[in-house]
Amino acid sequence: PPRSTQGxxxxxxxxxxxxxxxxxxxxxxxxxxxxxxxxxxxxxxxVGLFSxxxxxxxxxxxxxxxxxxxxxxxxxxxxxxLLYLFYSGTILTVLFLNKFKLWMAFFMATLNGINRAxxxxxxxxxxxxxxxxxxxxxxxAGFRIVRDITQMIGPLLGxxxxxxxxxxWSY
Length: 171
What we know:
Structural class: mainly alpha
Largest sheet: none
Strand content: under 5%
Number of helices: 7
Number of strands: 0
């Protein structure tokens, strides 16, 4: 693959940027949806339930892996990213139409949680294809750095937008 001036392949740079934006959006979305749960219930149990539903799909990760083995990691990765877009677009539309009901956040968190497991498996199995077999070590390190940074910046950015523009615009 062609090299950029910083010594990181352009493919890796593109992947890190895309993954960073994906993680940033995920962290911001989580903050906004948790805020909706808190505002509507003031229940620590329901906040915990909502948070747990986002990871419920990890139980299904072996099934996701089997499906991805049969259909290919890149195709699965594209599919999971389109599903994330669909979930976010659905919630955004419902919020703008003022039709939001709390159960919708829990339902979408469950669907998102199932999708999250498939996305994780697809991303990890596609790294060698996307970055090249010789870049696996640095690729894993790069993904981890991007993830850690976005986990710090995403909630902060989400909170600033939520406070400044309100729930519909922050989503």
